[in-house]
């Protein structure tokens, strides 16, 4: 009789001071349960966020009544397991208090539940204390406030009492500069009874001691729980191979190691470099020929190093996968919803497939959200996306009392243990931006935090920081996942415990968050100047499209500074910045709808500038992760994909600027450089055709240089002097089109303009569109009579195009395929778009 998991699914809930119980969803949270019963309005609509701030001031109760099935009761051991309680909870089983929880990121377990269970009529009650009421006294007791830049305490009616730092709870629940303040309570992960007898395997870790193409030298680390002393065998099998050893178990938890070796393994590769091959390892504990316990895990075999080595320019910072230096391309991931248990497998898949479709190979799970759900990492494993994994600490200083530190230690150990078999996770990082915000060793740097404290307090707060990020977390990683890499904070220049530790925009080591463009209103061109070894954050805001905005705003709210629009713009300077940049680079939009679209084109242009600047600097730079991949509600933000998964213009730019073989052009005013960036492991040897065209498509001049780049290399392949190119043509009236060809195949095709979109002298294009024969209507062919800049397609049916927001040149037709989001193997599948709306820059502007 094997181990049984009996999931407790039927729950009800109420505010503790009320009498009326209502049906609840578990996993879930109070906000979504209240919404389902119509007790609160849609939290994402209008200004409703403001009205819902009372929820976190109240206590809430969840209760399940259940009978225990016979087969569960027949087992000698039954434990009660909560995978996640958010956050301050007391658990009562049949009236007796059995657990007390204080960390959303930990699991909670009552080992000997059997004696407290009855065959029938059990009552399990979880009492959630208000996280606000719980933590305000901690702030009072500490006697000084800790910085927490994004904690929207005002919006929560708490004045300046920033209490998020005391709760081991998703930081973004307290608000962020893209997220609402919804401080939830609830049972956010599964609750179950685990029943077993004799022996069970509670964990199986495949430690990758040494992995090469010749052999994978592994150690299976099995955690076996036993009721008594036993003698038996541990057997492991994978890929048709088998290993075994005799094992003497003692009553209790045993850790058993078994060496495994797989000759000529199929390695796990990230997208672009190979297949993300996965192996299944099956473990059994066998006694006298009988399997008493079993467990299997999936993992990919790969070697990963964070390479920080001195070189002529400084110190490198890159991920080496199976011996290959990788240029990391991707974005920062935040939780997909303010209410995390609302995120279905399909939504995760949409994000991951979108990232892969956009030619990314890495996502950073940013430290202000959650240690993601298993589905997220399973998908990253399967699709070959590397994960930079932050621990959940961001933009705040934290307390350092023993209880807090101990809580953090257990949280870290549990999460590293849960996630250590995922081949996708290539780096563990302590926190987001705290080293740089505090800048302990550099008086003049930082965000002005440390200056608020006395010298003694400064030292104390920094010592508390070091306890977590320089000691507890790296020790947890080292102990639980010994081969994994750890980096204390992002960004950081080095780990030296002196002034050279803190990241600066001109650091030639470590990673950089560059926010000069956006927060400091520097011009886009500065993306070409500020380039570090690994750009782990940079970003530019835009609005989601009309259809998304309409889900939270009425027709009459559709103006930039309406109350509703402001509620959905969490960056105080956001609207001003979008407008200010638009005045620099874009013509004036003719109406609000056009403004929304233009904000996306502008964001895409900014990110294209940044991404390609970073890639042109390979190998000096080997990482470009923009801020941010996704949204947790419908909002103006830095995301490339909105809350509903709709691709903004940026998502298409990501697809084109992250492609593995990229032709990129940069202009300094005087000259134009042509760069060939090759992230593949094959050599590229081809030719360029560079054409100077006017807007009617007339060829004015052309050049045909050769273009080649070795494997994994970036090269300047050609350069032209602007004056030689223009030769009297007006820069407002011409463009360069460059095509990269190899063996008669077009590898890339890019346009280059001498002036900003604002200065271009565009005419109104007539764009024609016809379906491509034999494509069943899923592909269309577009043509124009004059240059159409940023051709923006929207379909009647929702979906994505193979390309969008592209330039259409007369005489050069473009074929675009339409695909819709479908659950199933492919996620996106070819479909007929229905009626197409085709706009271009000329349609968005005043005549
Ligand atoms: C970065 C992030 C977030 C923030 C973003 C935009 O620093 O780490 O804290 O949302 O900037 O301001």
TrEMBL record:
<feature type="domain" description="Glycoside hydrolase family 2 immunoglobulin-like beta-sandwich">
    <location>
        <begin position="199"/>
        <end position="302"/>
    </location>
</feature>
<keyword id="KW-0326">Glycosidase</keyword>
<dbReference type="InterPro" id="IPR036156">
    <property type="entry name" value="Beta-gal/glucu_dom_sf"/>
</dbReference>
<dbReference type="Pfam" id="PF17753">
    <property type="entry name" value="Ig_mannosidase"/>
</dbReference>
<comment type="similarity">
    <text>Belongs to the glycosyl hydrolase 2 family. Beta-mannosidase B subfamily.</text>
</comment>
<dbReference type="Pfam" id="PF02836">
    <property type="entry name" value="Glyco_hydro_2_C"/>
</dbReference>
<dbReference type="InterPro" id="IPR041625">
    <property type="entry name" value="Beta-mannosidase_Ig"/>
</dbReference>
<dbReference type="InterPro" id="IPR013783">
    <property type="entry name" value="Ig-like_fold"/>
</dbReference>
<protein>
    <recommendedName>
        <fullName>Beta-mannosidase</fullName>
        <ecNumber>3.2.1.25</ecNumber>
    </recommendedName>
</protein>
<keyword id="KW-0964">Secreted</keyword>
<dbReference type="InterPro" id="IPR017853">
    <property type="entry name" value="GH"/>
</dbReference>
<dbReference type="Pfam" id="PF00703">
    <property type="entry name" value="Glyco_hydro_2"/>
</dbReference>
<feature type="domain" description="Mannosidase Ig/CBM-like">
    <location>
        <begin position="674"/>
        <end position="758"/>
    </location>
</feature>
<dbReference type="GO" id="GO:0016787">
    <property type="term" value="F:hydrolase activity"/>
</dbReference>
<keyword id="KW-0378">Hydrolase</keyword>
<dbReference type="InterPro" id="IPR006102">
    <property type="entry name" value="Ig-like_GH2"/>
</dbReference>
<comment type="pathway">
    <text>Glycan metabolism; N-glycan degradation.</text>
</comment>
<dbReference type="InterPro" id="IPR041447">
    <property type="entry name" value="Mannosidase_ig"/>
</dbReference>
<feature type="domain" description="Glycoside hydrolase family 2 catalytic">
    <location>
        <begin position="321"/>
        <end position="434"/>
    </location>
</feature>
<dbReference type="Pfam" id="PF22666">
    <property type="entry name" value="Glyco_hydro_2_N2"/>
</dbReference>
<feature type="domain" description="Beta-mannosidase Ig-fold">
    <location>
        <begin position="762"/>
        <end position="843"/>
    </location>
</feature>
<comment type="function">
    <text>Exoglycosidase that cleaves the single beta-linked mannose residue from the non-reducing end of all N-linked glycoprotein oligosaccharides.</text>
</comment>
<feature type="domain" description="Beta-mannosidase-like galactose-binding">
    <location>
        <begin position="11"/>
        <end position="189"/>
    </location>
</feature>
<keyword id="KW-0732">Signal</keyword>
<comment type="subunit">
    <text>Homodimer.</text>
</comment>
<keyword id="KW-1015">Disulfide bond</keyword>
<dbReference type="InterPro" id="IPR008979">
    <property type="entry name" value="Galactose-bd-like_sf"/>
</dbReference>
<dbReference type="InterPro" id="IPR054593">
    <property type="entry name" value="Beta-mannosidase-like_N2"/>
</dbReference>
<comment type="subunit">
    <text>Monomer.</text>
</comment>
<dbReference type="InterPro" id="IPR050887">
    <property type="entry name" value="Beta-mannosidase_GH2"/>
</dbReference>
<dbReference type="InterPro" id="IPR006103">
    <property type="entry name" value="Glyco_hydro_2_cat"/>
</dbReference>
<dbReference type="Pfam" id="PF17786">
    <property type="entry name" value="Mannosidase_ig"/>
</dbReference>
<keyword id="KW-0325">Glycoprotein</keyword>
């Amino acid at each position: 009789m094997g181990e049984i998991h009996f999931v407790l699914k039927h729950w009800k809930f109420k505010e503790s001071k009320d009498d009326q119980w209502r049906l609840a969803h578990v996993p879930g949270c109070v906000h979504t349960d209240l919404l389902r019963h119509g007790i609160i309005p849609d939290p994402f609509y209008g200004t409703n966020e403001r009205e819902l701030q009372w929820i976190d001031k109240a206590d809430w109760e969840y209760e399940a009544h259940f009978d225990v099935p016979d087969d569960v009761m027949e087992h000698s051991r039954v434990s009660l397991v909560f995978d996640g309680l958010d956050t301050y909870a007391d658990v009562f089983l049949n009236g007796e208090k059995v657990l007390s929880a204080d960390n959303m990121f930990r699991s909670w377990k009552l080992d000997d539940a059997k004696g407290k269970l009855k065959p029938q009529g059990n009552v399990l009650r979880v009492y959630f204390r208000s996280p606000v009421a719980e933590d305000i006294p901690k702030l009072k007791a500490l006697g000084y406030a800790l910085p927490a830049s994004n904690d929207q305490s005002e919006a929560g009616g708490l004045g300046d009492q920033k209490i998020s730092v005391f709760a081991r709870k998703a930081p973004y629940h307290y608000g962020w500069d893209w997220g609402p303040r919804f401080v939830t309570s609830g049972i956010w992960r599964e609750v179950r009874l685990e029943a077993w007898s004799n022996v069970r395997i509670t964990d199986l870790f495949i430690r990758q001691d040494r992995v090469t193409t010749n052999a994978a030298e592994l150690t299976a680390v099995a955690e076996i729980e036993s009721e008594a002393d036993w003698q038996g065998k541990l057997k492991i099998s994978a890929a048709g191979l088998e290993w075994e050893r005799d094992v003497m178990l003692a009553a209790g938890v045993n850790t058993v190691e078994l060496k495994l070796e797989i000759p000529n393994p199929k390695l796990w590769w990230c997208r672009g470099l190979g297949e993300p091959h996965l192996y299944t390892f099956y473990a059994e504990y066998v006694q006298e020929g009988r399997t008493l316990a079993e467990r299997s895990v999936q993992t990919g075999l790969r070697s990963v190093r964070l390479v920080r080595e001195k070189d002529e320019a400084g110190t490198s910072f890159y991920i080496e996968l199976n011996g290959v230096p990788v240029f990391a391309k991707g974005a920062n991931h935040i939780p997909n919803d303010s209410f995390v248990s609302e995120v279905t497998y399909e939504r995760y898949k949409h994000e991951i497939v979108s990232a892969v479709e956009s030619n990314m190979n890495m996502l950073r799970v940013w430290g202000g959200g959650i240690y993601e759900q298993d589905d997220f990492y399973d998908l990253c494993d399967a699709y070959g996306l590397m994960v930079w994994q932050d621990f959940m600490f961001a933009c705040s200083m934290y307390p350092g009392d023993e209880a807090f530190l101990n809580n953090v230690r257990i949280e870290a150990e549990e999460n590293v243990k849960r996630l250590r078999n995922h081949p996708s996770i290539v780096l563990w990082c302590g926190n987001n931006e705290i080293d740089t915000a505090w800048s302990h060793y550099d008086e003049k740097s930082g965000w002005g935090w440390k200056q608020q404290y006395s010298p003694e307090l400064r030292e104390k707060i920094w010592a508390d920081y070091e306890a977590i990020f320089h000691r507890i977390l790296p020790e947890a990683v080292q102990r639980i996942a010994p081969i994994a890499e750890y980096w204390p904070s992002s960004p950081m220049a080095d780990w030296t415990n002196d002034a050279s530790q803190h990241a600066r925009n001109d650091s030639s080591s470590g990673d950089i968050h560059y926010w000069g463009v956006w927060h400091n209103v520097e011009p886009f061109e500065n993306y070409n100047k500020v380039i570090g070894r690994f750009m782990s954050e940079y970003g530019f805001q835009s609005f989601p499209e009309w259809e998304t905005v309409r889900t939270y705003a009425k027709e009459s709210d559709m103006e930039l500074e309406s109350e509703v629009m402001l509620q959905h713009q969490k960056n105080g300077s956001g609207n001003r910045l979008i407008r200010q940049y638009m005045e620099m680079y874009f013509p004036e939009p003719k109406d609000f709808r056009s403004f929304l679209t233009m904000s996306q084109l502008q964001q895409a242009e900014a990110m294209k500038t940044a991404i390609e600047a970073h890639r042109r600097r390979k190998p000096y730079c080997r990482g470009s992760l923009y801020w941010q991949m996704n949204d947790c509600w419908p909002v103006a933000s830095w995301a490339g994909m909105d809350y509903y998964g709709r691709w903004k213009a940026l998502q298409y730019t990501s697809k084109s600027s992250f492609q593995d073989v990229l032709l990129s052009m940069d202009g300094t005013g005087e000259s134009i450089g042509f760069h060939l960036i090759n992230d593949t492991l094959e050599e590229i040897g081809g030719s360029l055709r560079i054409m100077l065209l006017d807007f009617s498509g007339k060829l004015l001049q052309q050049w045909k240089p050769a273009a080649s780049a070795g494997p994994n290399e970036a090269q300047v392949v050609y350069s032209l002097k602007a004056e030689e190119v223009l030769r009297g043509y007006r820069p407002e009236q011409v463009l360069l089109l460059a095509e990269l060809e190899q063996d008669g195949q077009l590898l890339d095709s890019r346009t280059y303009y001498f002036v900003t979109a604002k200065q271009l002298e565009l005419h109104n294009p007539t764009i024609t569109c016809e379906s491509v024969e034999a494509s069943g209507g899923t592909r269309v062919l577009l043509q124009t009579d004059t240059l159409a800049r940023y051709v923006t397609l929207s379909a009647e049916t929702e979906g994505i195009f193979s390309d969008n927001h592209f330039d259409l040149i007369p005489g050069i037709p473009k074929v675009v395929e339409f695909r819709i989001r479908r659950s199933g193997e492919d996620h996106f599948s070819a479909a007929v778009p229905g009626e197409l709306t085709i706009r271009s820059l000329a349609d968005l502007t005043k005549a």
